[in-house]
């Protein structure tokens, strides 16, 4: 790839040499896309973990996506809000994402971590503490079940009757279900006496086993780990005894409610404020990295973002101190920009900016200027791509081209080869003058490196990523069923399967039969209230009936009204089903045109689609084409939100129609919309023996007639 050409240049060698010793060097002239390409080359060359600090999470996400496309394993370490007071239904998603990254670093599974400055300067669990609270389990391993439960409690896990999210575990006889923060799916541990008999993943919705596992890696579920409630209470009281005067009085007030909860055997949710008590030597993400390539990307942006963050934090902490929630000694949770400058002096650091500007807080050991230019992404049109390629090849550039999906890369390789270009699809090919290397994947943007005579071009990023596509495949059968507390907010109307329409009123913690749990409070007609355990969230669905939302009639608990409504709906549904069966029976008896099965032309046309198809697109297209091959009329309505890819499905059906010897008409609301939606696809069709015409009220009658005559 392009890395071989970069490495041969004096500019790159100067950068690599500066990273072999501690201290910051400043790099200017590279656009963001070019910097991602450079960082990936440095990581592969020096074989050290990249730590890229950015002004915000959006920039960190872009870098992580680009590094993944360039063959690295990368992740974003996000900032989180410290839980400093009890909050109903507070989520820990960002804390779990951070712990997942720490686990991947501990296991050597990451080449790069991209981190907003705010997240880097937030304290986290020290590395030694993190490693002490990690555990690897394998089948055949002897590990007492009670010891495992105690270990999970110490690592911050919460026990539930049924696992429904990360950071939880449950015990049922000889089975222990565990969901670690860095697991894609929860794991089921089955015991035979004190020996682990088997390990398997299982589906969170159905609670059924998916497949066997050879081992599982259990990382901590909290960034502040205290152990048991008794140990935690002892640590807090010890800190209070060490305090003197007003500070001791303030600490007693700030810890009073939490100590009462700990003495009753319950661990408070808001334990982040005791970070300094638990860890006298605080730690950040950098403490989890051994000799990283430390990059501060857009130093000016980092400085500005951190200034705003520190102001916001100061206002928040001042309010908490005035309320007595915090006290001096419990408010040290973050580092500052000065600490970042000190860290840059200790690490092998690269400070990157587009243009030279002041970096007075850093003692620079070198200034490096590298000239490069951002290359715009191409939209999938071969003609416009050739306009970009030809000048580069004429100047002796080697070009690496990221073309989207693997099948898109294969189709583009054939097209460029047919046009006389020297093309390779191998990642290991040595770049040379005039060679075009076509690879699957996307970058945020491309870049040309004049000093290395190398260029990288990328197609636009479209469609779902792999994780989103996998999640999409596991969608519930009931599309309105709730899968997360974020799906609803207090005041929303919901429907309970057994009790009917109610209004969601938030989460309430209740003690039932000696156990304290979270319940969803649902308000019904009058003063009726239903408490639904959070673990039974799937019993509720969003209320989606059309009409005036202000006049929704709430059901009454215990009455027969909801039962009668369900019976009426069931009867109406059965009647509708009967009518539909009769209608489809009549259609089956009608005769239609059976189109031939897909041929190589159809496959070639579909491979030229520049975007990543979603699972819904693929299934809809397959079902429609199957119906077209039947000897009776097809009757289908394709529905979807704006931008989900309906046009592509329609075009595949249109192409099948034309290749089956029939004409096809595509209707659009306006000519402008028609061209916007179909321009790229029509260019794709023009590569095949198909005649295409555009009819519009803006064209003369003579032009319309000539167009129709040309299509016959």
Morphology call:
globular
Distance between the termini: 49 Å
Count every helix, treating DSSP H or I runs of 4 or more residues as helices.
Answer: 22
The low-confidence runs, each spanning 5 or more residues with pLDDT under 50, are: 463-478
Structural class: alpha/beta
For the biggest β-sheet, the strand order reads 3-4-2-13-14-1-15
CA gyration radius, whole angstroms: 31 Å
Reported for the largest beta sheet, the result is: 7 strands, parallel
Instruction: Kindly report the average pLDDT value.
Output: 84
Report the portion of residues in β strands.
Answer: 15-25%
Estimate the helix proportion, in percent.
Answer: 25-40%
Number of strands: 26
Concise account of the structure shown:
By secondary structure, the protein is of the alpha/beta class. The protein contains 22 helices and 26 strands. A hairpin with a 2-residue loop joins strand 9 and strand 10 (195-202).
Strand and helix map with partners:
Layout: H1 3-7, H2 10-18, E1 23-28, H3 32-46, E2 50-54, H4 57-69, E3 74-76, H5 93-106, E4 112-116, H6 117-120, H7 127-132, E5 135-137, H8 145-154, E6 158-159, E7 168-172, E8 175-179, E9 187-192, E10 195-202, E11 209-212, E12 216-218, H9 229-242, H10 245-263, H11 275-278, E13 293-297, H12 299-323, H13 337-346, E14 348-353, E15 366-369, E16 373-375, H14 382-394, E17 398-402, H15 406-418, E18 422-424, E19 435-439, E20 446-449, E21 454-458, H16 466-473, E22 493-496, E23 500-512, E24 515-523, E25 529-533, E26 540-542, H17 561-589, H18 600-607, H19 615-628, H20 646-659, H21 671-685, H22 701-711
């Amino acid at each position: 790839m392009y890395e071989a050409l970069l490495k041969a240049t004096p500019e790159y060698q100067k950068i690599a040499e500066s990273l072999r010793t501690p201290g910051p060097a400043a790099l200017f002239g590279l656009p963001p896309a070019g910097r991602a390409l450079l960082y990936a080359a440095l990581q592969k060359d020096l074989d050290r973990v990249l730590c890229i600090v950015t002004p915000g999470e959006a920039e960190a996400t872009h870098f992580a996506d680009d590094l993944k496309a360039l063959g690295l394993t990368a992740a974003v370490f996000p900032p989180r809000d410290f839980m400093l007071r009890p909050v109903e239904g507070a989520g820990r998603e960002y804390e779990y994402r951070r712990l997942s990254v720490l686990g991947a670093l501990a296991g050597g599974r990451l080449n790069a971590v991209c981190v907003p400055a705010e997240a880097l300067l937030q304290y986290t669990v020290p590395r030694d503490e993190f490693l002490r609270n990690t555990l690897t389990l394998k089948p055949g391993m002897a590990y007492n079940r009670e010891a495992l439960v105690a270990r999970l409690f110490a690592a911050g896990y919460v026990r539930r009757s049924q696992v429904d999210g990360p950071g939880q575990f449950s015990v049922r006889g000889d089975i222990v279900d565990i969901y670690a923060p860095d697991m894609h799916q929860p794991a089921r541990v089955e015991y035979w006496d004190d020996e682990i008999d088997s390990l398997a993943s299982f589906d969170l919705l159905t609670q059924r086993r998916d497949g066997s596992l050879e081992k599982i890696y259990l990382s901590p579920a909290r960034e502040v780990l205290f152990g048991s409630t008794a140990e935690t209470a002892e640590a807090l009281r010890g800190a209070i005894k060490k305090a003197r005067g007003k500070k001791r009085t303030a600490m007693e007030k700030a810890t009073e409610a939490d100590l009462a909860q700990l003495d009753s055997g319950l661990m408070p949710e808001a334990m982040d404020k005791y970070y300094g008590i638990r860890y006298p030597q605080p730690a950040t993400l950098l403490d989890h990295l051994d000799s990283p390539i430390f990059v501060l990307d857009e130093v000016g942006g980092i400085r500005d973002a951190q200034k705003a963050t520190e102001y916001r934090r100061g206002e928040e902490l001042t309010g908490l101190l005035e309320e007595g929630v915090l006290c001096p000694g419990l408010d040290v949770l973050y580092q500052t920009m000065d600490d970042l400058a000190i860290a840059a002096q200790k690490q092998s650091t690269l400070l990157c900016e587009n243009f030279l500007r002041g970096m007075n807080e850093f003692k620079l050991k070198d200034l490096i200027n590298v000239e490069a230019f951002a290359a715009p992404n191409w939209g999938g049109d071969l003609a416009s791509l050739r306009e970009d390629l030809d000048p580069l090849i004429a100047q002796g550039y080697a070009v690496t081209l990221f073309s989207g999906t693997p099948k898109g890369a294969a189709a583009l390789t054939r097209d460029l080869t047919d046009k006389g270009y020297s093309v390779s699809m191998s990642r290991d090919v040595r770049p040379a003058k005039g060679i075009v290397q076509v690879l699957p994947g996307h970058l945020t943007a491309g870049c040309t490196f004049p000093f290395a005579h190398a260029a990288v071009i990328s197609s636009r990023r479209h469609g779902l990523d792999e994780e989103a596509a996998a999640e999409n495949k596991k969608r519930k059968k009931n599309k309105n069923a709730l899968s997360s507390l974020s799906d609803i907010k207090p005041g929303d109307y919901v429907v309970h399967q057994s009790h009917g329409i109610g209004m969601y009123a938030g989460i309430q913690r209740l003690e039932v039969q000696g156990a304290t749990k979270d319940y969803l409070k649902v308000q019904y007609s009058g003063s009726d209230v239903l408490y639904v355990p959070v673990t039974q969230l799937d019993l509720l669905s969003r209320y989606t009936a059309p009409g005036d939302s202000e006049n929704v009639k709430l059901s009454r608990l215990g009455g027969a009204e909801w039962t009668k409504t369900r019976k009426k709906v069931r009867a109406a549904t059965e009647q509708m089903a009967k009518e539909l069966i009769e209608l489809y029976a009549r259609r089956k008896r009608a005769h239609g045109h059976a189109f031939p099965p897909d041929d190589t032309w159809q496959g070639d046309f579909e491979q030229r689609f520049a975007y990543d198809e979603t699972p819904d697109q693929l299934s809809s297209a397959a079902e429609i084409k199957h119906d077209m091959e039947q000897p009776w009329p097809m009757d289908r309505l394709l529905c979807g939100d704006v931008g989900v890819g309906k046009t592509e499905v329609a075009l595949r059906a249109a192409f099948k129609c034309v290749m089956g010897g029939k004409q096809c008409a595509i209707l659009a609301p306006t000519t402008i919309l028609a061209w916007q939606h179909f321009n790229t696809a029509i260019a794709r069709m023009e590569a095949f023996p198909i005649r295409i015409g555009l009819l519009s009220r803006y064209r003369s009658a003579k032009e319309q007639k000539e167009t129709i005559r040309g299509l016959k």
